[in-house]
Amino acid sequence: MNEDPIAFTEAAATKVGELIRDEGNPNLMLRVYVQGGGCSGMQYGFEFDENVQDGDTQVERKGVKLLVDPMSFQYLNGAEIDYREGLEGAQFVIRNPNATTTCGCGSSFAA
Fold it and tell me: In 3-63, where do the E strands start and end?
């Protein structure tokens, strides 16, 4: 049973690990955040970060750390970060039970 407040799937952790190796900096962690914008009012963002900030939630899977700041955490608590490859291409996907509506591309939502 997963007790982490945010699920970080094995597929997502594996892909992030590959990207970190490609960057050549083993200190990098994946920061996931929420900001205003997108067609539904809020949108997800991803970036690499070397620093853990005060209040960050950390989830580790397969030696890869995921960071979420406190403001974003209120929207991402209970969400799942996954990585999918399919006919439409490869992408990170967030399944968020807190989103009341999402846009067709899945990159923005309303809470």
Answer: 7-8, 29-36, 42-49, 57-61
